[in-house]
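Whiteboard transcription, Tuesday session. T.W. wrote the C-alpha cells on the left side:
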C-alpha cells in the first residue's frame, strides 16, 4: 500500500473517529434527523427515487386510513434495514456491519408476485433514500435499531405510506412498535407475511399479525437479486433452520417463538439447491444451531461433500462432543465454527439454564474441532450471576492457553421478553431502560458479583488483552502444527488488526475484494489439517439436541 493511500485512510479514519458521534450531531436525543442520516462510510450513494407521481397510469388508489391500498393488484415495496446505533460505541467497527446482508428482508421479498416491485436498502452499508413513495415500507427491527426504525416509520406514515414492522424487537415489545406502525408482526414471518400481503392487496390489512404456524416448507427462494453483493464480506449468508432446541435464560429465542414450535429446518434438498445456486466458494450459515437437528445436519453435510465449498457456522459444546457431526461438517468444508462457551464458571451454567454445557470439557471441544482443521470462535458472556471480578483475566487466559483463534465477549444483557429479563426485573436490578444500550457492550443492570464499572472495564480489557499481538502469538504457539499457527496468526490478526484495510474496502464499496483472502485463509487451514483427518464414522440414527452461542462474531 502506498504512503498516499495510507495517508488517505488515516485521514478518513480521523473523520471516522470524530464521526463516531455522528448520530448525536445529526439530531436531537442522539437520533439522526429523518432523511439526513447515514453512516459516514456509506456516503455518496443515493439510490434512484421512485415516486407515485412518476408512475402515470398507475391504477392504484390512495392509501386507506388503515389497511393498505384498496383494489391493489401489484405492490411497490421498500424493504429497509435501519442502522444499529452501535456507531457511538468505542468498540464500533464498520466491518462488522459489512459482513452479512439483510437476509430476513430478502426472504420476505421472496413472497412478492412477479409484477410487484421491490427495493432493499441496508443503512449499514448505504445512504437511505427516504423520500421514496412506495405503497408499503417494511422494516426489520432489532433492539438497538428500534429508535431509528421508529423515526423512519414516523416519517413515511406522515406521508400516508403504510408501514409494517417486524423482527425480534417488535415481537418482544409489540405495543411499543405499534405506536409507529400500521401493522406489526409477532414472531417469524413465514405464515403471517403472505396472509398480510393478501389482506393488504384487498385493502384489509390488520394492525397486528401473530405467527402460529411454523414451517419453512414451500417457502419461496430468498430474493438474493436484491442484495448488492459487493458491499458484503459474506454475501453467501444463509439460514437453513429457525430457532434452536435449547432454552438459555438470556436468549431471545423463547420469546420470539412463543406460541408455536421453536426449532425447525428446511427440507434438505431445498437447502442444498440454494447453496448450489450461490456463486463463489464461501458460505456463512447464520443458523443459531447448525447441528441442532442431527438427521438434517448429517444429510446436509453429505449433500455438500464434493461441492467444493468452504463454510462457517455455529454449533455447541454438546453437539461437538456427543457425535461425529462435526467431523462430517469438516469433511463437507466447514472451516470455522462459532461455539457458545459462555462462561468459565460452571455454576453460571445452572443459574442461566445453559444445561447443555454443564460438565463438558471445553478443552476437549477445542482439541477435537481444531484437530479437524476447523477454527473456533468462542463466545463468552460476562456478568452472569456467579461472575466475580476475576472472570475477565481467567477467561482470556483460558482462551489464549487453549489456542482459541477468535473470541467474542458480551456483557450480559436482559433482553425484554426473556426469562432473564423477568427475573432481573423482579429483583429490581434493571438500571437502564434505554434500548440503545442493549447491545451487549453496556451494563444495563446491577450485577451480583461486582460493581457495574468493574464489569464494563473488565469487558473492554478482555477484548484488548485477547487481541494483543502478544496474546495472538501465544495462542498461535499453542496450536499443534506450524501451519495451524500460521493460519491462527493470519485469521485472528486479519480480523482485528487490519482495521485501515477494512475501512478502505468499505469506503470503496468493494468489501467483496477481500472474500478470496478469507476463502484462502479458511481453505489453507482446512487442507493443512485435512490430511491428518480420518473419514467420519457412520452417523447413529438416534436424534439428540444441541445448542449454540447467542450471537455472531464481534
Ligand atoms: C447476522 C446477525 C447479526 C449481524 C446483522 C447483520 C444484518 N444484516 O442483519 C451483525 C453482525 C451486525 C449482528 C450484530 C449484533 N447482534 Co446479531 N445476529 C445475527 C443473527 C446471527 C442472524 C440474523 C439473521 O439474518 N437471521 C436470519 C433471518 C432469515 O431471520 P430474521 O432476520 O430474524 O428474519 C425473520 C423473522 O425475524 C421475521 N422478520 C424479521 N423482520 C421482519 C419484518 C416483518 C415486517 C415481518 C413480517 C417479519 C420479519 O421474518 C424473517 C423470516 O422468517 C441473529 C441470530 C439469528 N439466528 O437470527 C443474531 C441476533 C439478531 N443478534 C443479536 C445480538 C445481541 C447482536 C449484537 C448486540 C451482539 C454483539 N454485541 O455483537 C450485535 C449488535 C446488534 C445490535 N446493536 O442490536 C441477537 C438479538 C437480540 C435481540 N433481542 O435483538 C440475536 C438474535 C442473537 C441472539 N441469539 O441473541 N448480528
Ligand atoms: S443455545 Fe444459543 S440459540 Fe439456543 S437457546 Fe441457548 S443461547 Fe439461544
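and on the right, the sequence the group agreed on:
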Amino acid at each position: 500500500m502506498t504512503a498516499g493511500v495510507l495517508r488517505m485512510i488515516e485521514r478518513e479514519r480521523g473523520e471516522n473517529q470524530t464521526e463516531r458521534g455522528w448520530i448525536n450531531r445529526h439530531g436531537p436525543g442522539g437520533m439522526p434527523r429523518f432523511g439526513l442520516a447515514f453512516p459516514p462510510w456509506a456516503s455518496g450513494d443515493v439510490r434512484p427515487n421512485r415516486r407515485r407521481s412518476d408512475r402515470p397510469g398507475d391504477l392504484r388508489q390512495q392509501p386507506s386510513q388503515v389497511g393498505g391500498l384498496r383494489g391493489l393488484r401489484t405492490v411497490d415495496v421498500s424493504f429497509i434495514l435501519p442502522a444499529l446505533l452501535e456507531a457511538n460505541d468505542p468498540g464500533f467497527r464498520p466491518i462488522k456491519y459489512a459482513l452479512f446482508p439483510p437476509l430476513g428482508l430478502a426472504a420476505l421479498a421472496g413472497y412478492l408476485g412477479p409484477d410487484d416491485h421491490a427495493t432493499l436498502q441496508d443503512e449499514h452499508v448505504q445512504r437511505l433514500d427516504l423520500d421514496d413513495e412506495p405503497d408499503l415500507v417494511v422494516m426489520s427491527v432489532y433492539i438497538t435499531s428500534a429508535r431509528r426504525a421508529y423515526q423512519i416509520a414516523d416519517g413515511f406514515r406522515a406521508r400516508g405510506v403504510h408501514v409494517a414492522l417486524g423482527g425480534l424487537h417488535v415481537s418482544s415489545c409489540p405495543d411499543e412498535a405499534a405506536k409507529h406502525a400500521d401493522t406489526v408482526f409477532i414472531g417469524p414471518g413465514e405464515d403471517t407475511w403472505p396472509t398480510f400481503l393478501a389482506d393488504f392487496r384487498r385493502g384489509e390489512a390488520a394492525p397486528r399479525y401473530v405467527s402460529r404456524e411454523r414451517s419453512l416448507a414451500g417457502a419461496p427462494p430468498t430474493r438474493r437479486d436484491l442484495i448488492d453483493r459487493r458491499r458484503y464480506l459474506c454475501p453467501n449468508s444463509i439460514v437453513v433452520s429457525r430457532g434452536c432446541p435449547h432454552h438459555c435464560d438470556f436468549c431471545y429465542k423463547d420469546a420470539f417463538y412463543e406460541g408455536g414450535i421453536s426449532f425447525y429446518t428446511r427440507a434438505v434438498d431445498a437447502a442444498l439447491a440454494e447453496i448450489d445456486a450461490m456463486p463463489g466458494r464461501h458460505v456463512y450459515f447464520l443458523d443459531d444451531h447448525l447441528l441442532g437437528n442431527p438427521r438434517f445436519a448429517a444429510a446436509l453435510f453429505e449433500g455438500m461433500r464434493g461441492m467444493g465449498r468452504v463454510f462457517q457456522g455455529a454449533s455447541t459444546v454438546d453437539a461437538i462432543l456427543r457425535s461425529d457431526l462435526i467431523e462430517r461438517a469438516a469433511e463437507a468444508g466447514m472451516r470455522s465454527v462459532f461455539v457458545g462457551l459462555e462462561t468459565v464458571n460452571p455454576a453460571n451454567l445452572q443459574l442461566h439454564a445453559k444445561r447443555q454445557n454443564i460438565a463438558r470439557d471445553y478443552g476437549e471441544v477445542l482439541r477435537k474441532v481444531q484437530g479437524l482443521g476447523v477454527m473456533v470462535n468462542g463466545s463468552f458472556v460476562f456478568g452472569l450471576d456467579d461472575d466475580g471480578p476475576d472472570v475477565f483475566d481467567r477467561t482470556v487466559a483460558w482462551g489464549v492457553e487453549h489456542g482459541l483463534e477468535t473470541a467474542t465477549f458480551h456483557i450480559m444483557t436482559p433482553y425484554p421478553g426473556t426469562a432473564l429479563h423477568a427475573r432481573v426485573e423482579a429483583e429490581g436490578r434493571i438500571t437502564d431502560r434505554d434500548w440503545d444500550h442493549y447491545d451487549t457492550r453496556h451494563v444495563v443492570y446491577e450485577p451480583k458479583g461486582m460493581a457495574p464499572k468493574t464489569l464494563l472495564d473488565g469487558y473492554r480489557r478482555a477484548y484488548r488483552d485477547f487481541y494483543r499481538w502478544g496474546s495472538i502469538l501465544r495462542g498461535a504457539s499453542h496450536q499443534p502444527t506450524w501451519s495451524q499457527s500460521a493460519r491462527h496468526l493470519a485469521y485472528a490478526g486479519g480480523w482485528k488488526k487490519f482495521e485501515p484495510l477494512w475501512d478502505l474496502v468499505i469506503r470503496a464499496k468493494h468489501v467483496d475484494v477481500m472474500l478470496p483472502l478469507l476463502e484462502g485463509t479458511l481453505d489453507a487451514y482446512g487442507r493443512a489439517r485435512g490430511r491428518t483427518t480420518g473419514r467420519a464414522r457412520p452417523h447413529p440414527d438416534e436424534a439428540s439436541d444441541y445448542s449454540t452461542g447467542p450471537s455472531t462474531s464481534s
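Someone added at the bottom: The longest helix spans residues 3-19.
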